[in-house]
């Protein structure tokens, strides 16, 4: 694909098919010039392409070329199957994708994506879909851009903030210049982190309301207050629903993960039993359930099993060897002390059990690997 398409996107002309602002490239005489809509929203020639440099072609890569030549309607259809988080990330990869996904004609793509998320509250009317996706699935601080998690969202403020930023942006020290002023401001409810247990306010919002107060006449202010109170009530209810959705999501995911882990554990046990380790599994059931290759919330596929089988077989073989070694030590200890008790008092020092173990005679005797009955007979 010619470089001009990317340039067209960068100029903000991408999205629906838009003519590139770049000059047309020369075509061979008699060669038909067929135009079509592409991801980058350009109309390009399907005839032999421009002589772009080898370096450019290499950098572009096969996948990007494939995507870039894909018709927009096909791409939009594919995008409807992505999660909101994926769409959000995709919109940040290139200007071309950004220009597609942030245009109003892509609202249906976002809505289709939202519908795949169980229990997700509806996108409020005062936010567009990409804004809502960022509100619900973003992962950076809205103030400084640092990485943050969903636990750091101030739902009523519609802000995702890092640990540091609330210290300057949120305060409980707000004067009420006119009666009812504080009712125009959002305050976090329970479960919203930093300001959970006291009335606190988002200072940029406070400044915005103070500015309104300065600008509006008394009558207009009264009217504005009525509408604003309704707005705060409506958005606070939605914020509560969002907060609950996140809380519920944690619980639900924890339950689902537990179920997946147990199912994986059962499958692995069945497969190890088939390989002849059924008896040993009775001894190491608990340890196996805690093994890092077992304790994962992922279904056991053939591919995964082929990858983890050998390490697990090695682990269970080692577990068996250790168990038998411990058992031998116990049996040998008992027999040794029983034997020593039966000896007549003597001034000679008897070798300790550790010395017996370490002795070359003991190692050469073959008792190190003997089974418990054999040991008993030998001693
Ligand atoms: Zn921050």
From TrEMBL:
Domain F-box: 64-113
Domain of life where this protein originates: Eukaryota
Region Disordered, annotated ranges: 1-60
Listed InterPro entries: F-box-like_dom_sf, F-box_dom
Stretches that traverse the bilayer: none
Listed name of the protein: F-box domain-containing protein
Organism of provenance: Botryobasidium botryosum (strain FD-172 SS1)
């Amino acid at each position: 694909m010619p470089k001009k398409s990317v340039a067209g996107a960068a100029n903000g002309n991408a999205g629906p098919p838009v003519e590139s602002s770049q000059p047309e490239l020369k075509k061979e005489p008699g060669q038909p010039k067929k135009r079509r809509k592409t991801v980058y929203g350009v109309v390009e020639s399907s005839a032999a392409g421009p002589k772009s440099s080898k370096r450019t072609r290499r950098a572009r890569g096969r996948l990007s070329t494939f995507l870039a030549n894909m018709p927009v309607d096909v791409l939009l259809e594919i995008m409807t199957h992505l999660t909101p988080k994926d769409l959000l990330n995709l919109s940040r990869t290139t200007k071309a994708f950004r220009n597609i996904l942030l245009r109003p004609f892509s609202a249906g793509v976002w809505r289709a994506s939202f519908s795949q998320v169980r229990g997700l509250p509806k996108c409020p009317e005062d936010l567009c879909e990409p804004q809502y996706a960022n509100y619900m699935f973003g992962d950076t601080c809205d103030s400084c851009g640092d990485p943050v998690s969903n636990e750091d969202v101030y739902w009523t403020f519609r802000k995702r903030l890092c640990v540091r930023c609330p210290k300057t942006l949120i305060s409980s020290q707000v004067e009420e210049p006119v009666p009812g002023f504080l009712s125009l401001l959002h305050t976090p409810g329970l479960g919203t982190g930093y300001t959970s247990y006291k009335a606190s306010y988002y200072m940029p919002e406070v400044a915005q309301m103070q500015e309104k107060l300065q600008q509006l006449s008394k009558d207009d202010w009264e009217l504005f207050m009525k509408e604003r109170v309704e707005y705060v009530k409506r958005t606070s209810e939605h914020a509560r629903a969002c907060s609950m959705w996140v809380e519920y999501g944690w619980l639900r995911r924890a339950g689902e993960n537990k179920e997946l882990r147990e199912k994986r554990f059962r499958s692995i046990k069945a497969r190890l039993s088939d390989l002849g380790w059924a008896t040993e599994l009775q001894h190491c059931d608990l340890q196996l359930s805690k093994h890092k290759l077992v304790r994962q919330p992922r279904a056991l596929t053939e591919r995964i099993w082929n990858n983890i089988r050998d390490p697990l077989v090695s682990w269970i073989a080692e577990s068996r060897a250790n168990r038998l070694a411990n058992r031998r030590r116990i049996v040998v200890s008992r027999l040794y002390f029983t034997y020593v008790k039966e000896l007549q008092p003597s001034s000679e020092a008897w070798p300790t059990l550790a010395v017996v173990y370490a002795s070359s005679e003991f190692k050469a005797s073959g008792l190190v690997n003997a089974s418990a009955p054999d040991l008993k007979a030998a001693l």
